[in-house]
Amino acid sequence: MSAQDQTAEARERALAKKGRMVSLVIVGTMVAWVLSLWLAPKFGLTARHAILIDFLALAALAWSFIVSLQIKRARKAAQNDR
Questions:
Q1: How many CA atoms does the CB half-sphere of 41 hold within 13 Å?
Q2: How far apart are the first and last CA of the chain?
Q3: How do residues 16-75 score in pLDDT, each as one tens digit?
Q4: What is the DSSP string of 3-71?
Q5: How far apart are CA 33 and CA 29, in angstroms?
Q6: Nearest-angstrom CA–CA distance, 42 and 27
Q7: pTM of the model
Q8: I need a surface site. Which of 23, 36, 46, 49 has the fewest CB within 10 A?
Q9: Separation CA 72–CA 8 (nearest Å)
């Protein structure tokens, strides 16, 4: 295996790790958001708190979208280098 193959393999592993992290953030955000909607009335949270939770979920999903685009661009660039 050449050095170039090793670096390409390492880059692909890093991108796969990033992809797993993005998927965990998406799933975790959705689970936390649904649980917060279900538990908010039980804890007496106001609409102000609900909006804050919604904005935090949107921020996490926006981050996930941006990182997903970075992964896509990195894979496309790696494919063009071959």
A1: 3
A2: 16
A3: 999 999 999 999 999 999 999 899 889 898 989 999 999 999 999 999 999 999 999 999
A4: HHHHHHHHHHHHHHHHHHHHHHHHHHHHHHHHHHHHHHHHHT--HHHHHHHHHHHHHHHHHHHHHHHHH
A5: 6
A6: 23
A7: 0.86
A8: 46
A9: 15
